[in-house]
Structure formats: C-alpha cells, structure tokens
Amino acid sequence: MRITRLAQWVAAAPALLIALTISDEAMAASALNSGDTAWILTATALVLFMTLPGLALFYGGLVRARNVLSVLMHCFAVACLASVVWLLLVYSLTFGDGGVYQPYIGGLGKAFLSGVGPDSMSGTIPESVFFMFQMTFAIITPALIVGAFVERIKFSGVLLFTLLWLVLVYAPVAHWVWGSGWLAEMGVMDFAGGIVVHTTAGISALVLVLVLGPRRGFPKEIRPPHNPGMTVAGACMLWVGWFGFNAGSALAADGSAGMAMLVTHISAAVASLVWAGIEWAKFGKPSVIGIVTGAIAGLASITPASGFVGPLGAVVIGLSAGVICQWFTTWIKLRLTIDDSLDVFAVHGVGGILGTLLAAFFAAKSLGGLGLPEGVTMSDQFVVQLIGVVSVVIFSGVLTWIIAKVVAITVGLRVSEEEEIDGLDISAHGERGYDLT
C-alpha cells in the first residue's frame, strides 16, 4: 500500500512542479501594477528632463557668454558618466545587500545588474524601472554641484570628481536613507531627496569651491547673467520635471503621489512670490532671475517633505524657503565672500536642510500632514531629522574635501588664468556658444 502511494506521488511530481511554476509566475504577474509602472516610467523621463535640458539651460543662462557651452557640456557629460557608474557599481552599493555592513553600505551583488532580469520586481514595478528612476537621481545630484564651480574648472577635474563623489559620497548616503541603512532604521523622513540629493550637493558644492577658489575678479567684477531667457526656460523645465522627482518617489500611482505633486507646486509658487517680493521691497524692482530662483528654492525645500505634509506645510515651507534661501545667497557671497557661483549651497543645500527639518512638524496631522509614525512626537522626529542632517553634512563635507584634494593633485582642478580669461568654451572645448562676427 505504501509502495503504491509512493509511486503515485512520484508520478504526480512533474505535474506538481509545473503547477507550482505556473503559480509562481501568476504571483509575479499579479505583483506587477501596470498603472504604477506606467507612472514611474513617466516620472523617470521627467526627472531626466530636469537635468537634460532643464538644469543645463538654467545654469547656462546664468554664466558669461564665453562659458555657456562649458556648462552645457558639464551637465551632459555628468549625466552620461553617472549613468554608466550607476550600472557598474553605485546602484548595487546603494540598494544591494551589504551583509554585516548593511547599516552603512550595500554590497556588490547587483553590480552590472547581476541577477536582475525582465521578471525581477521591486514592489509593484519591475526592478529595471526602479533602477532607471533612481539612476536619474544619481544623475542630477552631481549635476547640481556644477553650478558652484562654473567658469574656472578643468573638464578632466569635473569628470574625476563626479566619479569619485558618486561612489564615496552619494552611494553611502543614499543607502543610509533609502537602502535600509542606519538612518532609515532610525526613521528619518526624506521622501524625495532633501538629504540624499540637496544636502549632499549643497554642502559638497560649498566645500569644493573653498578648495577651488573664487573666479577671477570676484566679487567686484562678476557680470550679470548673459541670457536670462535661457535661465527662465530651464527653470520652467525644472518645475515641470520636479513633479516626477517628488510625486514619482511615491513609487505608485496613488493618493500619495497626488498629494506630493500638489504640495510641490504650491511650495514653488509661494517661494517664487516671496523671493520676488523681497527684491521688490529692497531694490524697487523684482527680477526675473529672482522669481525663478525662488521657484527652485521652493522646489528644493519641499522635496524631503513632499510625501508627508499637506497644503499648509507646503505654504509654510515655500514661505520659509523664499525668505531664508534668499538671505543666504547674499550672506554667502557678500559677507563670507565665497564664490558659490550659481548659489548651489544657498538654494539647494539650505533648502534641502530647511525642508528636512520642517517635515518633522508639518507631517503631524494636527498641522495638516499625513501623520507621524505611531508613538512619535514632533520633537522626537525633529531629533531624528537633525541627526540625519548633521551626520550627512559632516560626512559629505569631509569626503568632498578629500576628493577635491585628490583631484587637484592628479588631473588638476583649476584652469590657468589665461584659459579663464579666454573662456572655457574655446579653451577647453574649442567651440563658441555664439558667433557674433
């Protein structure tokens, strides 16, 4: 009797295996949400649109005419380099399993996307889509730093700095916050990159320009933007692309994404009006450069809080960004005489830190937010946010200083005085942005 039953089980084994395989495939298929996938595909394109062409045009219009191509080249080259490095190494270091080092850095198990196939999933979307979405964040973060060192840096220095910075600064910080690292375990709130993107970029920009030094003639002989229209066009592209940046970070086509989009827009609008109003009161005329810079400050500030706050929080964060970031732009350049050329620290660094800290309060339901974790008070969450900011500020600053020194003694950081006078377009790339003859 037992032998007969055993024979029946053996005979049925192939059919059972087939059934289990079909069941696994069905489960994998059911995990895929086509709506979520379609939205994240769209959001990925929007975030890449922020760098190419949004940020490139925004920065390009702010420099002198003889340096416009160099800025476009820096943004484009950084996007290409970051994409390759993300595939080779940085994605795995950010989201891979780090084993005993998991609190601090991921492992190399996903280098070259090893083990990731067409059916690999990340929640309700294919992992390939998640890979691409997160890649656009790794692209725009070092591209933001470009605005600090324009008009005086070697192109080889840009490339080597970007490579080392992505591996040594971006990957660990992104892992701490988004890759189940130690800050994630503490419960830090950074929905779309106030810490990972804007704080790291802002602090790194500030440290890098201290090593690099100011532009020739700074601060007395710096000319106004050569093409404000180009800057406005870039700012408009950034604003639209930012919906993918923040609302896409919900990783789903749901109410969280909708609210993130809403508060993103409101914060940018409020900060723009506040920035323009301050200029109007101080100088008698609101500038177009001022109003679009205010929009970027509002967008950067709402980024970490966008998935946690409601409209009230968006208004307050936008108002704060318009006042505080505007003050820092003047203080950094005129009081500290630090040549952060296009205000990367004042707009992105200060904005990212501001939004990260304010998220602790305006995430509370009593202030119109979506709610803090159960049992966590505003003060508790503020301490966690502060720890996250301070640790990343120190880490980014120290590592950036080391990287900048390494670049300076290898390929070099700064162009010669003659090259700076001629402009980087012709001296570094052999081209001119405008043919005025």
Low-confidence stretches: 1-29
**Structural class of the helix and strand makeup?**
mainly alpha
Strand order of the biggest β-sheet: 1-2
- Number of helices, counting only DSSP H or I runs of 4 residues or more: 15
Q: Could you describe the largest sheet, including whether it forms a barrel? A: 2 strands, antiparallel
Distance between the termini: 100 Å
Extended strand count: 2
Radius of gyration: 24 Å
Average pLDDT over all residues: 93
- Tell me, briefly, the overall form: globular
Percent in helix: 55-70%
- The arrangement of helices and strands along the chain is HHHEEHHHHHHHHHHHH
| Approximate strand percentage | under 5%
In short:
This protein has 437 residues and is mainly α. The protein has helices at 2-31, 34-60, 68-95, 127-145, 155-178, 182-186, 194-212, 228-247, 255-283, 288-302, 311-335, 344-362, 378-409, 417-422, 424-429; strands spanning 121-122, 125-126. The chain contains 15 helices and 2 strands.
Features:
two-stranded antiparallel ribbon; single chain; 437 residues; disordered N terminus; 2 strands; mainly alpha
Explain what the structure shows.
70% of the residues lie in helices and 1% in strands. It has 437 residues and is mostly helical. A two-stranded antiparallel sheet has the order 1-2. Helix 2 (34-60) runs antiparallel to helix 8 (228-247), helix 7 runs antiparallel to helix 12 and helix 10 packs across helix 12. The longest helix is centred in the last third of the chain and has 32 residues, at 378-409. 52% of the residues are buried.
